[in-house]
Structure formats: structure tokens, C-alpha cells
Amino acid sequence: MKVEKVLIIVSKGTIEDVYAGLVMANGAVMEGIEAKMFFTFFGLNAIRKGKQDKLHTATVGNPAMMENVPTMIAGLPGMEALASAMMKKEMDKLDIPPVSEFFDMIVAGGGEIYACQLAADMFHLKKDDLIDDVKDIITVGDMYALADGPNTQIIFI
């Protein structure tokens, strides 16, 4: 069974989580798979005007980070900024586009970006607060309707 559509739910606002969703959505679009992204809770930071290219990596509470940086050091002031800068530098070496450019690529390829109504209400956000690539603010029920049809995969990040 060939995947025909993906619905990618991004619930976290760290650079590594947002990029995971963007890479999957862009890959789907490039493979001719219908791609829709739904941003909820702290994932909304990725689609807020002026925020999408200022995301940070999680240093505290990130189990993978403990492999390289002890928790005590990860919590020191400036460590999150340092880790984020290092991650962005490595992504630049691989020619990975910034978050804002990734959104433009996905939408240009036919992908769609949505925001969660409940989370937007909770954080007092309106459509004007979000980047232009956001098609709409929708309910969870509307999000499930986007997944309608055969051969759809829902991916939660």
C-alpha cells in the first residue's frame, strides 16, 4: 500500500522537533505525497511571525543531550543558545534551509500548514500573528477531516 497523504502534527517548538516535521513534509511533497502540517501547543512558535527562524534546541530534559552534556552544565545560562548555534551551524554545512524557507518550499510544492484552534486560543493568537504560509486555524475535528481518505499516515512529533 503506497502512502498517498501524510498529516504531520508538530506539538513541540524546539528546532529539532520542528525540523523533523519540516523534513518529513518536504520529503513527502517531493515524492508526490500530499502533505499537511498541523501545529499545536508549543509547536505554534514555529509558525508565529518573527519566531520561526529563532527556535532553540532543548538542552535540559533532553535525554539525548545527556550523552554529550551533563544535565548540570546543560542548565547553565547560555548553554541553550550555544547548543542552538552549534546545531544551526551544522545544518548550514549540510545546506539545510532555515525554517521560514522550508515553509515556503513546502507550500510552493502543494503542502498545507494549519494551526490548532484550541492552542491558538490558549495562547491568545490570531491568524494575523502567524506566518503567511498558514492556511487556516482549525479545530481538531477539522484536522482529522484533513486525514480523510485511503492510504493516509498521521505522524505526531
Which features characterize this protein?
alpha/beta; Hypothetical Protein Ychn, Chain: A; 37% helix; 5 strands; 157 residues; globular; 6 helices
Q: What would your notes on this structure say?
A:
The protein has 157 residues and is α/β, with parallel strands linked by helices. The protein has a domain at 5-53 and 98-156: Hypothetical Protein Ychn, Chain: A. It has six helices and five strands; from the N terminus they run βαβαααβαβαβ. It has a five-stranded parallel beta sheet with strand order 4-3-2-1-5. Helix 1 (15-30) runs parallel beside helix 4 (99-108). The protein is globular and about 45 Å long.
Task: Explain briefly what this protein structure is.
By secondary structure, the protein is an alpha/beta fold. The protein has six helices and five strands; from the N terminus they run E-H-E-H-H-H-E-H-E-H-E.
Most strands sheet:
5 strands, parallel
Question: What is the average of the pLDDT values?
Answer: 86
Strand content: 15-25%
**How many helical elements?**
6
User: For this structure, what is the CATH class of the domain at 5-53 and 98-156?
Assistant: Alpha Beta
Blueprint (SSEs and pairs):
Blueprint: E1 5-10, H1 15-30, E2 34-39, H2 71-74, H3 79-93, H4 99-108, E3 112-116, H5 117-122, E4 134-138, H6 140-146, E5 152-156
Parallel strand pairs: 1-2, 1-5, 2-3, 3-4
